[in-house]
Amino acid sequence: MNPLHSTAATNEHPVVVTRVAERQWHALDDDQVVGRGHTSPRPDGRVFLSIDAWHGAVFDRLADAMLTDLPRPLHTVVDEADLDQRSGWERIGFTVRRREREYLVPTDPELTGLHAVRPPSGVTVVPLGEAEDGPLRALDRAVRTEVGATVGWETMPAEVVPLPRGVTVLDPSRYAVAARGDRYVGLVRLAPVPRQPRIGLIAVRADQQRHGIARALLAEVLGSLHRSGVAAASAEVDASNKAATALFEGLGSRLAGGNLELVCR
């Protein structure tokens, strides 16, 4: 890649910012790497930036180089409690676009109140790892189409692992589903995060909502985790999603923190 030279003082040496790959930038001080930047395109089209730099001046120069090279809008995610990191991004023109709340969800059915929950009449919950691949992928495509036509996938959690183009179900064993007859109508995806599982997605077909399917799916997944010795799972919820917030808070979940998605247009 052609280098993009930009200077900032750290001690007596100028800093040179170089684009070393399509999605990577390095800041060099006397041939030593003093900062790194990279981009992560998401399946919904959003491009997220990440910068790792010890000095504010290096951060600013990396950000300037990346903003010069890349089309807008651009996004990033910061811990809501990290005021220094947030101010760094806001200093270069990023503003808050949305907030995510992170909950710790107990798995004990006596604590969640899910011990007596049963699927609605005519609905069967298929446990984790037992869903049929074809119907699961068809449900995933249908849910994505419905979300895209209503609230939009940009309202989904920002921390989404990039997947190969066209792939949305990477590991079917991480899903539990709800079936009405031979049709899958709802799903929960459990992300394999180290040390603590995360509820990565819970979704029910639009014509099947408000019948208790989501609670039945959570009862199955959380109960399974409890039986395997896991005390809690994490979940990220858009702060503006009142229905999802009410669902998780109604399970006795504890607010553990939050993230901010910032955007530069």
TrEMBL record:
Keywords: Acyltransferase, Transferase
InterPro entries in the cross-refs: Acyl_CoA_acyltransferase (IPR016181), GNAT_dom (IPR000182)
Domain of life: Bacteria
Molecular function GO terms recorded: acyltransferase activity
UniProt keyword DNA repair present: no
Broad class of enzyme this protein falls into: transferase
EC id: 2.3.-.-
Domain N-acetyltransferase: 123-265
Descriptive protein name: GNAT family N-acetyltransferase
Species name: Streptacidiphilus cavernicola
